[in-house]
Amino acid sequence: LSLGNMTRLDSITAVPIDKIRDLANSLAGKFIDLRWAMFTLPAEYDRNLLSKMYSLSEWNRTFKRCPRCASFLSRCAAKTSAACGYCQSVFYPPISPAIICLVTNRENSHALLVHLPRSPNTVYTLIAGYVQNGESLVEAVRREVGEEAGVDCDEIVQLNMSQSWPIQNNSIMCAFRAVADPKQKLDICKNELLAANWFSREEVQWAFDNTTRNLNHINESIPPKFQFIYVPPYGALSNRMIKHWLGEKP
């Protein structure tokens, strides 16, 4: 479901739906998975709106009592908040900062891509993770690359790209670039990744073009495991970062 090119909205209301099949049939449409919708809605405005609707709906559904005194909370129309009438505390929807990083070699000819357990077996993406308490975004990049792929990186630079991501924890993903030596042995964290590898610019370009051409086949499982055939779809921040890198000269 695309929300169209809406540029001015007086109000938008998101409500949970129990009988989604009945609603879909009445509209001659169908409901799709939230993750897939975030990946494939054409307009960034639509994706951000969907992210806001889902994250606020989940917050309102799960955040019922005051964490300080356990009294029931009242919803406030202003500033999207919840107030406790007993201890007067006010709470706002939490946002979990996360990083996503495109790691290249110093010659800028190869990129380090990873395969996640939740991804189709033909999709490789970028290293990403949540920022921990007490660390900067740059420190989070260095730690995540080391934890997930087992390599040290430097020349960490933040890009002017970000994405709201509502799934699991309401996150804001911040994009980074980093450099690492491919001679380092890859030592993946098997709790986080199923595979990691360095790919040439030509290999990444082929997979990127294949994703654009064959988007509807991206969720198909093709043996053998962990073939590099696709990158994440165009709605993913990783897709934009990879596209930006492919437009550079080595």
From TrEMBL:
Coiled coil: none annotated. Residues 94-221 form the Nudix hydrolase domain. Keywords: Hydrolase, Magnesium, Metal-binding, NAD. One of its GO terms (molecular function) is metal ion binding. Its cofactor is Mg(2+). Signal peptide: none annotated. Its EC number is 3.6.1.22. It is an enzyme of class 3 (hydrolase). Pfam families: NUDIX. Gene3D superfamilies: 3.90.79.20, Nucleoside Triphosphate Pyrophosphohydrolase. It comes from the Eukaryota. CDD domains: NUDIX_NADH_pyrophosphatase_Nudt13. The keyword Magnesium applies. This is NAD(+) diphosphatase.
